[in-house]
Amino acid sequence: MKKKYKISFLAFLLIFISLSSNFVVAQETGIISGTVIDSVTSEPLPGSNIVLKGTSLGTASDSKGYYEIRNIPPGNYTIICSFIGYEEKSKNITVSAGQRITLNFSLSPSAILIGKELVVIGYSTEQRRDVLGAVSSVRVDDIKKSGLGNTLNALQGHAPGVVIEPYSGQPNSNPNIKIRGIGTLNNNEPLYIIDGVPGDIRFVDPIDIKSIDILKDASAAAIYGSRAANGVVIIETKRGEREQPTSVQFSSSYGVQSLTKKWELLNAKEWLQTLSKAYDNTLKSDPKYTIPEFLRAYRANPDSFLAHNPDIDWQDVYYGKNVPVRKYNLTISGGGKNYNYSISGNYFSQDGTAADTWGKVWSIRVNSDLTHGKFKFGESILIGREENEFINGDAGGRAPGFQVLAMAPTINPWDPNNEGGYGGPKAGSGYSDATINILANNYLRDDIYSNEYFRAIGYVEYEPIPGLKFKSRANISISHPRNYYYAPTYNFGFRSINATADLSETIGRTNYTVWENFLSYETSIDKHRFSALAGYSREKNQYRSVGASIENFPANYLPVFNLGTQNPGVNGYQTDSRLESIFGRAFYSFDDKYLMNFTIRRDGSSRFAPENRYGTFPSFSLGWRISSESFFKSIPFSSAVSDLKLRYDWGKLGNQEIGDYLYIPGVTVGSTFGTGINLNYPFGDNNVLIGSAITSFPSTGIKWEETITQDIGFDLSLYQDKITVGADYYIKKTDGILYNTPIPLSTGVPTGPLTNLASMENSGFEFYFTYKDIIGDFNYRVAGNLTTIKNKVTKLGTKNEEVWAGAMEWGQYLTTKTVVGGELGAFYLYQTAGIFKNQAEIDNYVGPNGKKIQPNAAPGDIKFVDQNGDGVLDNNDKINMGSAIPDVEFGLNFSGTYKNFDFSISMAGVLGKKMFNGTKWFLERMKAPINWSKATMNAWTPENPNSSIPRAILNDPNGNDRESDRWLEDASYLRITYIQIGYNIPLEYIAGFGANGIRIYLSIENAYTFTKYTGYDPAVTGTDLFARGVDTGIYPTVRTIRTGIEVNF
Predict the structure, then answer these.
(1) Segment 576-628, tens digit of pLDDT
(2) Domains, the chain
(3) Nearest to 476 by CA among 197, 122, 225
């Protein structure tokens, strides 16, 4: 059932009222205008704050540094200009009635603050120049421009060592994020800290973000202990500024989305001709094959058949073009002498390109702080809701997107004679029984997920003496997830019959609470600078759910539980976990040259058995600021160096992101537990005894997964941060990775207990640079980063087992193997050696026993290499052909302004990545009467002997479709992640409307991808860690073109 949207125009009404007011400027007031520039570089300082002291009058400079304050009553004033990292300036001025005054400011970089912007490192902040761990900060402007509705997508290409892999093009889907590679066989998601405590990043709109810092190694992340093994993403949201007049920002954008590429499929005539040749070849080797009815009809009268049957590319039917995406934001912020606040509201909606898929998110955020004497109070409140409708359908063990490609072009998607109104292959027609009308599945069924989210953070801070602070912070987060599924009765094909309508719904509630208390102190004595922090944290997470299901309703339009009459069912689930921690950190600097940091955390987690519940995670780091040494100043060109620092760190982290109660045996009572065995036993005539069975063995001995990292690097800043360069070499070793112990099938339990039986190592280099300059009216910034990564599995089970994965069809065609000493999920495939062109080549290809290695081959079939020379093709002949883990990841970003115009472009890419193109395998194996790619028209024939595509034959006696390098492709790519061009309307044209600034822009997200990969998207890697890079028909990612407006009042 198609989801309809009613778009609210409240936001447009608000902006119309605001722009329409205050149109005429009274003649008895004055105007002050001017520009704000950097005194060293003469570069404009956009976003500078200019206020009239003691009044509510003020503004911010635009992208050219220009500002204008209107409606100033006559009188004497002190005007103050400030910008973060610069010395504040003030001037006294007299304003007369009707007077227009030009007043320019030239701000000097603060000697104290050059290179000392603050970085959030966990429970506190640290000056950028003193950071000793591996920490990457992402510019908020870059996130805002490229984020659209998802903060994680916006990070792509902006931080070294951080790779963003889109999961799919499904609306509201979060991408996979990996920080310095894969560190475990379990959950690899980083920890998200939002406004100081763990939170849900799905409700963080990019426009609300004040800062993003990414902690990548143990020295930086050890303060978070057992939750930081995969890195930490720290996000601070905007809170308003002290002594700033109330400002209002409104933004709106509208865009359209389309697929970035399509598969070239056969049209009706091409498909029938190619399929006909395939049946001819098949009948020669197996006369028992039967030509299907539809193909016999075509052969009898091709022109008549084509005239009376459709010719459809199902991609055009299923995937929409120019599908809308909308976003609105309204923010009100400001502050007085002792307080600041920010209130924002966001709405984002996205229709999916796939039929009847959509997603929307809205949120309201309120942040504020208040200082009273030695006390400081603050809160952060968030209310949000998300809702999505997903793809329905089964595709024979593969993603539903395969069904779209597989549907024969001669099948009509619609048929008013069928119940439900959709078409499909009829029984006995000869069309493949592996295809269903996925379009109908999506429209007729509802599969909706929604979640209401509430979060409240409150804190109190007390500073009895300068430098000594005590802070207590509490958080409560409540979410209400809901899964709703309804399938009415329908009949549109022999694989698409639902004779009984079915309804199910599950409603849950999660309560997450955190209470933290910590004491910090910092001081400086002569050349000694010291800071310390100690704290205690307690977390509790509770989840409850209840669900119901029932079938058979009086009518399809009455999906109400109490109206169902068949197979009622109820289910419930609950779980609790707790985490208790103490932590501390100490920092020492001598003479601003020699720096040291020590961090420790001890966690106790209820997810482990009592004897293994606690873990301790220490780290230390050392730094040497060479640029402060006296000998360095005698080196030529040393005056250009603002800062040069060498650093080394070591640390240990833990991982407790596993299931609850694993140390207790799992027991199922009644019904079945996935094996089809009924546990309810009849006894006598009327009694039923409820049985039980063990479904999982206890993992009583499991301990913390432990990750040890080492990092050595340097940071270099030149010409007062005009140029910055840095590099790191890192080693990340994880021991005690939880892994299911193999057990005999005779136990009756599907999987063995988890044990600490695996280890893994990642290592590599990171490099980053930034350069900014101004040439006349052209102000620009270039930033780039590059990361190398090498992954190695060092232990796997008690006997270093091999793990085969990446099955293409019902557990068959295994494409990956993980072994000790190799990469996780490496591709192990057959090597091809061309195509047999004649029978002699087949006869001469023999093993040591003189027998043919491929006895079922015929001219036109693929020749496979017998690697071990035993004369038999089996898994022992598969060889390592690389993996989906890239050798190099990189990003390049450019932003600039010219007069009132601004331009940004961001690029990201990888080198050395491989992918198994399962979609190509599906469309070119020519093994069933489904649609195929156009490449199959070039299949081998005696008249076309030089083709690289084997002969078309449905029974495939030679196994041409086996998992081989035929399907493996280079998935290296360079992606233009976004391009944006904007224009700031000059203030003189808009001041009469009451606005301080209006910017309009045009943006393209996922603009273009340069790659050799022929599938939908080389960046999509999948979620199965043992089968990364196996493309099994993803929901294609999209390109978005949108335009927007930003208005400041």
Answers:
(1) 999 999 999 999 999 999 999 999 999 999 988 888 899 999 999 999 999 99
(2) 23-107 (2.60.40.1120), 118-238 (2.170.130.10), 664-697 (no CATH), 809-1048 (no CATH)
(3) 197
231-245 confidence digits (pLDDT tens): 999 999 999 988 888
Give bridge partners of residue 793 from the DSSP assignment: 760
Phi-psi region of 230 (alpha: psi -120 to 50; beta: other; left: phi over 0): alpha
Confidence at residue 673, expressed as pLDDT on a 0 to 100 scale: 40
At residue 420, the pLDDT reads: 85
Beta strands in 526-565 (DSSP E): 528-551
Q: Is 722 helix (H, G, I), strand (E, B) or coil?
A: coil
CA-based angle 106:110:111, to the nearest 5? Answer: 130
Tokens of 190: 């980083």
The closest alpha carbon to 715, from 768, 678, 657, 650, belongs to: 768
CA-closest candidate to residue 937, choices 47, 187, 272, 25: 272
Question: Which amino acid is it at 467?
Answer: G
Q: Whose CA is closest to 629, among 641, 618, 621?
A: 641
Beta carbons of 205 and 363 less than 8 angstroms apart: yes
The secondary structure of 43-108 as a DSSP string is -B-TT-EEEETTSS-EEE--TTSEEEEEEEPSEEEEEEEE-TTB--EEEEEEE-TT-EEE--EEEP
SS3 814: coil
- Tokens standing for 325? 């995406």
Contacts of 245 (CB under 8 A, 6+ apart): 51, 56, 57, 58, 334
Structure tokens at 1031: 């493309």
How far is 1024 from 1027, CA to CA, in rounded Å?
Answer: 5
Q: What's the CA dihedral at 171, 172, 173, 174 to 10 degrees? A: 150
3-state secondary structure of 748: coil
What is the pTM (predicted TM-score) of this model? 0.86
Give the whole-angstrom CA distance, residue 87 versus residue 79.
14
Task: Write a three-state SS string for 832-860.
Answer: EEEECCCHHHHHHCECCCCCECCCCCCCC
Q: Are 175 and 153 in contact (CB under 8 A)?
A: yes
Tokens of 734: 């994880």
By CB atoms closer than 10 A (0-12, 13-18, 19+), residue 366 is middle
The secondary structure element, H or E, covering residue 1039 is: strand 1038-1048
Q: What is the 3-state secondary structure (H, E, C) of 113-147?
A: CCCCCEEECCCCEEEHHHCCCCEEEECHHHHHHHC
Q: How far apart are CA 599 and CA 218, in angstroms?
A: 9
The single-letter code of the amino acid at 448 is I
Q: Which amino acid is residue 297, in one-letter code?
A: A
Closest CA to 89 of 37, 33, 42: 37
Rounded Cα distance between 388 and 359, Å, is: 4
Tell me the C-alpha distance between 688 and 670, whole Å: 10
Cα dihedral 281/282/288/294 (nearest 10) = -90
Let me know: does 881 contact 828? Beta carbons within 8 Å.
yes
pLDDT tier for residue 53 given thresholds of 50, 70 and 90: confident
Other CB atoms within a 10 A radius of the CB of residue 1039 amount to 19
Cβ atoms of residues 1013 and 914 within 8 Å: no
Instruction: Give the whole-angstrom CA distance, residue 267 versus residue 410.
Output: 9
**DSSP symbols for 634-658:** GSTTGGGEEEEEEEEEEEEEEE--S
